[in-house]
Amino acid sequence: MSLSPYDDGPSAIDVAPIVIDAVDVAPAKGGARLDAVNVSAWFGSNKVLERVSLSMIPGTVTALIGPSGCGKSTFLRILNRMHEMVPSAKLAGEVLLNDEDIYGANQRVTETRKRIGMVFQKPNPFPTMSIAENVLAGLKLTGRKERRAEREELVERSLLRAGVWNEVKDRLDEAGGALSGGQQQRLCIARALAVDPDVLLMDEPCSALDPTSTGRIEETIADLMSEVTIVIVTHNMQQAARVSQHCAFFLAESGTPGGIVESGSTEKIFEDPDDLRTKDYVHGRFG
Amino acid sequence: MDVSVSDLVLDEPREIHPGTPKVDRIFHGSVRFVAFVVMVIFGAIRLFLGAKSVSTFHLYGVRFLTESDWEPSLNRIGISATLLGTVLVALTALIIAFPLALATALYISEYAPARLKATLVSLVDMMAAVPSIIYAAWGFFLLMPHTIGVSHWLHEYLGFIPIFRVDTDPNAAVLAQARYTGSMFIAGIVVSMMVLPIACAVMRGVFAQAPPGEREAAYALGGTRWGMIRTVVLPFGRGGIIGGTMLGLGRALGETVAVAIILSAAFDFKFRILENGGNTISKLIAERFGDATTVQLAALLAAGFVLFVMTLLVNTLAAIMISRSRSGAATEA
User: Fold this and answer.
1) Cα(A234)–Cα(A202) distance, rounded to whole angstroms?
2) Is A211 part of the contact surface with chain B (CB cutoff 8 Å)?
3) Would you say B307 and B86 are in contact if contact means Cβ atoms under 8 Å apart?
4) Which residue, of A71, A167, A200, B307, has the fewest CB within 10 Å?
């Protein structure tokens, strides 16, 4: 597979997508490497993403930034095959999970989603289930049976990893919907972690939360990144700078599909970007 | 503000004048009036039936509920057999309609391709628009001959269960076909066709409102579509499933024409639904109304009152169960 910059055919973006140059970083324990190669996406006949290539490296957090409507959420949903849930959605290109195309003919979509978990913008615990049942929902959904002791252990471990164990350990049988927004979101993270994914995608996980809860989620992200590859979409520049090691700036200029203007280490994107548009955006001058 | 002035101002809740515009007041008034009229009419029906039944309950006492026969010439009037028949026909209809309505609603809301959805919805809705006399004719002329085989099979292999017993030998050389016609079972099948569209519409309505966020969460965890339905749609739709079924039951309890035509009248207190003969309250009223004397008319109205109370209980129970569930606010029941 080639990761060289792409230059055949016209592109809406005049800077060729830059692939993160950390290809040689050894995969950390846990976490898998995820590579998007020339990913384009359509809704009906409307093209929303054009030839996006990006590598997401194990042991790191990759932040996707950019103004609304630039296709970063669509891109994130393509990474665990949630994109195809929309009836008119189409896509081109490949998404490689440890060098295997998740859209390959012999790939099972349920298996892929199990390996690539997702946390959504709005906390969405299953409200009729208890906190413990919520954590175990993935097991139930994928038909995995565990013994009672193992289930209890998994609930505790997942809630610990999501950094919410101490707050809920005495009320595991209460409804998940009774928690605060921030706790609900961390419960959702625990639920996603319980099926032991290699990659965790987060779609603006803090946009519905207050600053304190946001801080807790960011701590959780920092704790998790050695175990699972994390990709986060965020509108918050400071957050991207705080939590990520790699950054990709998406932009859709008037009437054209979205794409990556520039990607690289977070430090470079924020302090010395190559593209003027990136510089303007990260300094809050447009978008 | 000057301190001395602010000290003089009383710290008490002040009166607020809503200043509602005239248009709003007129609209508010007329809507309230119409709503009030509906409630008055409903109350009047209840009062009328209740008042008319008093004489009957006074005359026959508890015997009205325990006596199975309706023989005015012998002054033996009671509704135990009829009441049981009403419940049996309604339950048969419900047991047949429930899985059909649930499966249809799930298919339409979760599986059907978008272009098929609208057609299916209107087809099911059209089922509700078919007059019951048409269902009656369908049941009598088309369904009944074909049901004899089914009834006979049930009798032969499940006859040890009391409700599937028939007063004839299932292995007789010549099949006693007439014993299997005009049964509560056949009436129940026909009524189920009328229950299905109501139950299905209510269920479909709540299934469609299952929160998209929770659906996505289930898929994102690696769930199959069936897994998602089990974890999200069915728990969310519980109120609609119960409510739709109960609404259907209300319809089934009161269905008249189809039952009157299909079911052969009989006044035995029996559970044998496959066997010829049975009765329901609405059928009884419809058939005996024309040539009733004053006393009999009062008795028929008393029977109607019992039916009314029963459906009221069913619907109230349904409303309580629905309001306790999450999707409750979304159902029309």
Assistant:
1) 9
2) no
3) yes
4) A167
Chain B hits for A124, CB-CB cut-off 8 Å, are 211, 213-214, 216-217
The phi, psi pair for B130, rounded to 5°, reads -70, 125
The reply to whether B332 falls in a domain is no
Whole-number Å distance between alpha carbons of B329 and B333: 9
CATH number of the domain that B114 lies in?
A: 1.10.3720.10
Residues 51-70 of A with CB under 8 A from B: none
Q: Which residues of chain A have pLDDT under 70?
A: 1-30, 286-287
Q: pLDDT tens, A74-109?
A: 999 999 999 998 889 999 999 999 999 999 988 899
In a domain, B110, yes or no: yes
Whole-angstrom Cα distance, residue B300 to residue B294? Answer: 10
> B100 or B64: whose pLDDT is higher?
B100
- Strands of A89-97's sheet, edge to edge? A46-56, A34-43, A89-97, A100-101
Sign of the C-alpha dihedral computed for residues B212, B214, B219 and B223 taken in this order: negative
A230 touches A221 (CB < 8 A):
yes
User: Domain residues for B265?
Assistant: 80-323
Q: Average pLDDT over chain B, rounded to whole?
A: 87
CA of B237 to nearest chain A CA: how many angstroms apart?
11
Q: How many C-beta atoms lie closer than 10 Å to residue A66's C-beta?
A: 26
In sequence order, what are the residues at sequence separation of 6 or more whose Cβ sits closer than 8 angstroms to the Cβ of residue A13? Answer: A50, A251, A253, A256, A259, A260, A261
Q: Which residues of A touch B232 (CB under 8 A)?
A: 126
B139 within a domain of the structure (yes/no): yes
Residue matched to tokens 């508010």 = B28
Q: Pairing between strand A34-43 and A46-56?
A: antiparallel
Which of A83, A31, A76 lies closest to A199, judged by CA?
A: A31
Mean pLDDT of B6-25: 82
Q: Indicate whether B15 pLDDT > 90.
A: no
Q: Are B131 and B255 in contact (CB under 8 A)?
A: no
Q: Does B162 fall in a domain?
A: yes
Residue A239: exposure state from Cβ atoms within 10 A (0-12, 13-18, ≥19): buried
Q: Which tens digits make up the pLDDT trace of B223-240?
A: 999 999 999 999 999 888
What would the DSSP string read from start to end of A50-119? EEEEEEE-TTSEEEEE--TTSSHHHHHHHHTT-GGGSTTEEEEEEEEETTEETTSTT--HHHHHHHEEEE
Number of Cα atoms under 13 Å in the Cβ half of residue A223: 17
The amino acid that residue B68 corresponds to is: S
d(CA B82, CA B269): 8
DSSP for A102-136 reads: TTSTT--HHHHHHHEEEE-SS----TTSBHHHHHT
How many domains does chain B contain in total? Answer: 1
Which residues lie below 8 Å from residue B324, measured CB to CB, with a gap of 6+? Answer: B239
- Three-state DSSP class for residue A258: strand
User: B interface toward A at CB cutoff 8 Å?
Assistant: 114, 211, 213-214, 216-224, 227-228, 231-232, 235-236, 326
What ipTM was estimated for this complex?
0.84
